[in-house]
Amino acid sequence: MRKLNRRRLHTRRLHTRRLAARRPGRWSRPRLFGRGTDRGASAVELVILAPALIFVSMLIVQFALWLDATHAALAAAQEGDRAARAAEFNQGNWQQTAAQVAMNYYHGLDTSVIAGVSVSRIAFDQDANTVSVTVSGKLSGIFPLTISETASGPVECFRSSQSGGAKCAAA
Length: 171
Hints:
- The chain is an alpha+beta fold.
- The chain has a domain at about 40-155.
- Helix content is about 50%, strand content about 20%.
- It is built from 3 helices and 3 strands, in the order H-H-H-E-E-E.
- The chain has helices at about 1-20, 40-85, 95-110, and strands at about 115-125, 130-140, 145-155.
- Strand 2 (about 130-140) and strand 3 (about 145-155) form a beta hairpin.
- Helix 2 (about 40-85) packs antiparallel against helix 3.
- It is rod-shaped and about 125 Å long.
- The N and C termini lie far apart (about 125 Å).
């Protein structure tokens, strides 16, 4: 009998200690180990990590848009450069032809990643006998960036033996 009473007394003391630990007041102390000590940890982790994950995903999308825009601008500049290199320099409208070909090629790509796309510069370097075409515009994405791509190449022309093959001869 005595053993039974001692057990009851011991369990009753444990029970009151547990109740005292749950109640706020003098007997409560923080739980450092055990079951239930990490309550709310996943919510805190989510609050900390969610903005970082959203920002990283936005950067990935922005990089994909930038890559698409630079490829589209470079392709249009290369096509305009091909037209300018093959154009007759005796005619005065070779620059307009190059700009028109570049813009038609860009619009033919059927993409809208660059807003306000234009052929910003067409230049002819007489010393090097090269033509360069620059296509530029604003990236229409999360962060607005200026996209500018230049393509250049040698002018396709007839080189006479009189000039030693150094300059283009007029046809």
